[in-house]
Structures are given as structure tokens and as C-alpha cells.
């Protein structure tokens, strides 16, 4: 009897074994609508068995309205093999989403594709912007290695872009070109720019060759070069893009003869936090400028820096010290911090507590002995040293090495 009951339950389970694809497409689509774009594409890919999207994936994607702008950086991390996106993966995404829906494409961090996966865009009439720089927003192409810039095929990509421009209904307004192409200045790229941006003098300038100087990267609105209103386009030397002032504020270095400029997100050109001084790049900062003890942030004068105890907010937050002078002052990732361990007693202090501790040691020295009063104490390690400046510099160099890439 027990055996019969067990078999009955097994048959009942098999009869009710339901697959995800057995659910109504409308229901699955409603569920997918709550997912971020990259997760939604990963979900649709799971419903397909090959490099070709399944009928249900295409049907679900057609009901979504989040495909106007596609950033392949997030998609790569979820859909690429070992986190690396291939041209077949790009082709799959475009086939599933439908190129008729895509107005903006960014290939951030897609270092291993040639661009052949973008072939379906050849006849697009709605594509407005494509970023081929391989870096994300407010990231610099100067940081890319030669290998990272080498796979994207100039022949393949420019052939696709030329086909788009041949369409009388083309909507293409902006192309962010790879830094490598802009340096080489091939005849093929010259021909493309002549057919598309012949009237843009910035595109042909010596130091900004290939940059689109009449279109804001963010809002894609066009502006003439004679325009003097508040929305005139300005260039960031770090992320190599033009922005109108309604989208991103750009600061210009006020150093004599310097043309450096950067957007507020890149901060290559900076103002003092007090906001009263002009902006300067690191090479042109005045002699009165005071840097944070641990990074490149700074202040226009000693009096201004004193308000912050020579520690910027970013470095101060990393310390997270409760001020009790015990080892539990360090919380979180101690490999990237502003907390220093004393070589004599082993106690750990954040910069603010260390400064107070130094004051206490000096006061104690005054009270106890005139010899101790004459000794100099390094604020970085709180040891008595002959040359405070040299000792502090050694600690600063060690800190810089520990926090490289933070």
C-alpha cells in the first residue's frame, strides 16, 4: 500500500511539472519590467538556448520600454562569458531588443569586441548617439592600455556608420571616437569626418581632432560656435567630451598660458572648497596652495586649510575613528585608510585623533622636562625625530603606495 501511494505522488508531481516558459508571456514580461536593464537582458538570455534569441525573449523584450539607451558595461558583467562580452553577445542583444528601439549605445569596458556585432545598426534611422571610446562616463581614455584599445576595428565600425549616414532619415548626432583612432588620424577616418562633420572646426583642430564640437554629449543638442549664451559648449580635457553648461559645469584653469579644463566630475581642474578662488590645474596652483596630507585635494591658503586640519573630507571619512586611542579605531578596509599605527606603542590613530595626541605629547613634554620639549615629534608616527619634514614625507609616500587605485 505504501508503495502504491508513493508511486501515485510521483505521477502527480510529474503531471504538474511546470516550466517557466509555460507561464503567459504577458506575466513574464510584467515580472521582467521590475528588473534593471542588464538583469532583464540576462533573464531573457536565460530563456534562449543559443546565440539566437528565442521567440519568447523577443516577445518579452518588445513589451519593455527601457531600450532607448543601452550601456554594455553592465550587460557585459552579467551576460558575457567570464565577464567578457563577445561580438556574438552584442549581436544577440540587438536582435532581441530590436535596433528600431535603440537611440543611444555605449560600449564602456568592452575591450574584446571588434564591432562586427553592431552590424544590424547599418539601416537604423533612430540611432542618435554611439560612444566607441570604451570608457564609462567621466573616465579617461588616457588610462587605457594599448591592448585594450586594439581590438575595435576601424574598418568595420566606420563602414556601419557610413551606412547609417547614407540613410536620408538618419538621426545620428554624436559619435564618441576611440582615443587611438583620433591619435592615428587615418585616411579612412578623415573621409568619414569630412562627409559628416565638415562644418565643425573643432573636429579638425590639432589637439582635439575627432571630437564633436557642436553637440553636447549629454543632451545631444547642437550649438553654433558663435553662440555666446549660457549654454555654450565647453570641453573637458580628461574625459574628452563637450558639454553644455546646463548639463555639466566645466572649469578652466586660470594659470597663465594654460588651456586645461575639466568637468566637475573629473576634477582635473579644481577650486578651493571655500569657493572664493579661481580654478587651477595641479601644475598651475599658486604657491599659497596647501594640499591635503594624504591626497591631491587642497585649499587656497594655510588659513583655509587650517579649518579642515589639513585633511579633506574624503580622507577623513576613511578613518572612521572614535577617538578613544584604541586599536578598534580602524573599521572596514584597513588596507585603504588614513589611519596610522605608531611604531613605538602600536596604537592606531586617525588624522584628527593623531593631531590631538601630538598636542597632548607636546604639552606633557613641556611639563616634564625641558629636554623633551626640545625634541621634535612627527605628526605621522608620533616619534621623536630630528627632521620632521623628511619623516612625514616618507610616511606620505608609503600611504600613497598603499592607496594606489583607491
Summarize the structure.
This protein is of the alpha/beta class and 406 residues long. Helix content is 34%, strand content 10%. Strand 15 and strand 16 form a beta hairpin.
Secondary structure topology:
Layout: H1 2-15, H2 25-32, H3 37-46, H4 55-62, E1 69-71, H5 72-79, H6 87-97, E2 104-106, E3 129-131, H7 154-166, E4 174-176, H8 179-184, H9 187-197, E5 233-236, E6 241-244, E7 250-252, E8 261-263, E9 269-270, E10 280-281, E11 290-291, E12 298-299, H10 302-306, H11 313-319, E13 340-341, E14 348-349, H12 351-368, H13 370-374, E15 376-377, E16 384-385, H14 388-402
Parallel strand pairs: 1-2, 2-3, 3-4
Antiparallel strand pairs: 5-6, 7-8, 9-10, 11-12, 13-14, 15-16
Using only CA atoms, what is the Rg? 29 Å
Distance between the termini: 68 Å
Strand order of the largest sheet: 1-2-3-4
Q: What series of H and E elements makes up the topology?
A: HHHHEHHEEHEHHEEEEEEEEHHEEHHEEH
Tell me about the largest β-sheet.
4 strands, parallel
Written account of the structure:
By secondary structure, this protein is of the alpha/beta class. It has 3 domains: 21-198, no CATH class; 200-280, Herpes Virus-1; 323-402, no CATH class. Helix content is 34%, strand content 10%. It is built from 14 helices and 16 strands. The strands form 7 sheets. It has a 4-stranded parallel β-sheet. A two-stranded antiparallel ribbon has the order 5-6. It has a two-stranded antiparallel ribbon with strand order 7-8. A hairpin with a 4-residue loop joins strand 5 (233-236) and strand 6 (241-244). Helix 7 (154-166) runs parallel beside helix 9.
Amino acid at each position: 500500500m505504501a508503495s502504491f501511494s508513493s508511486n501515485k505522488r510521483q505521477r502527480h508531481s510529474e503531471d504538474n511539472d511546470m516550466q517557466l516558459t509555460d507561464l503567459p508571456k504577458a506575466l513574464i514580461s510584467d515580472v521582467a519590467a521590475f528588473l534593471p536593464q542588464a538583469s532583464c537582458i540576462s533573464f531573457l538570455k536565460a530563456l534562449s538556448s543559443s546565440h539566437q534569441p528565442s521567440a519568447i525573449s523577443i516577445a518579452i523584450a518588445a513589451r519593455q520600454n527601457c531600450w532607448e539607451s543601452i550601456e554594455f558595461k553592465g550587460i557585459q558583467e552579467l551576460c558575457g562569458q567570464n565577464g567578457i562580452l563577445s561580438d556574438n553577445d552584442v549581436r544577440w542583444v540587438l536582435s532581441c531588443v530590436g535596433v528600431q528601439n535603440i537611440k543611444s549605445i555605449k560600449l564602456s569596458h568592452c575591450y574584446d569586441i571588434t564591432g562586427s556585432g553592431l552590424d544590424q545598426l547599418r539601416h537604423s534611422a533612430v540611432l542618435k548617439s554611439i560612444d566607441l571610446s570604451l570608457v564609462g562616463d567621466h573616465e579617461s581614455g588616457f588610462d587605457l592600455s594599448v591592448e585594450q584599445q586594439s581590438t575595435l576595428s576601424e574598418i568595420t565600425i566606420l563602414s556601419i556608420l557610413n551606412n547609417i549616414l547614407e540613410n536620408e532619415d538618419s538621426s545620428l548626432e554624436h559619435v564618441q571616437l576611440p582615443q587611438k583612432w583620433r591619435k592615428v588620424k587615418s585616411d579612412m577616418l578623415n573621409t568619414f569626418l569630412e562627409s559628416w562633420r565638415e562644418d565643425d572646426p573643432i573636429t579638425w583642430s590639432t589637439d582635439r581632432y575627432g571630437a564633436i564640437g557642436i553637440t553636447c554629449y549629454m543632451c545631444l543638442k547642437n550649438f553654433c560656435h558663435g553662440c555666446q549664451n549660457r549654454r555654450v559648449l565647453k570641453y573637458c580635457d580628461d574625459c574628452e567630451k563637450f558639454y553644455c553648461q546646463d548639463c555639466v559645469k566645466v572649469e578652466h584653469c586660470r594659470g597663465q598660458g594654460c588651456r586645461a579644463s575639466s568637468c566637475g566630475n573629473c576634477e582635473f581642474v579644481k577650486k578651493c572648497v571655500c569657493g572664493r578662488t579661481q580654478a587651477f590645474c595641479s601644475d598651475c596652483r599658486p604657491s599659497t596652495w596647501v594640499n591635503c596630507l594624504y591626497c591631491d585635494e587642497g585649499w587656497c591658503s594655510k588659513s583655509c586649510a587650517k579649518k579642515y586640519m589639513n585633511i579633506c573630507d574624503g580622507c577623513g571619512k576613511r578613518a572612521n575613528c572614535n577617538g578613544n586611542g584604541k586599536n578598534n579605531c580602524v573599521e572596514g578596509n584597513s588596507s585603504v585608510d588614513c589611519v596610522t599605527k605608531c611604531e613605538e606603542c602600536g596604537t592606531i590613530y586617525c588624522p584628527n585623533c593623531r593631531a590631538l595626541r601630538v598636542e597632548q605629547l607636546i604639552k606633557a613634554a613641556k611639563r616634564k622636562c625641558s629636554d623633551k620639549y626640545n625634541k621634535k615629534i612627527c605628526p605621522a608616527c608620533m616619534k621623536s625625530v630630528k627632521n620632521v619634514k623628511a619623516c612625514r614625507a616618507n610616511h606620505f609616500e608609503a600611504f600613497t603606495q598603499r592607496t594606489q587605485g583607491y
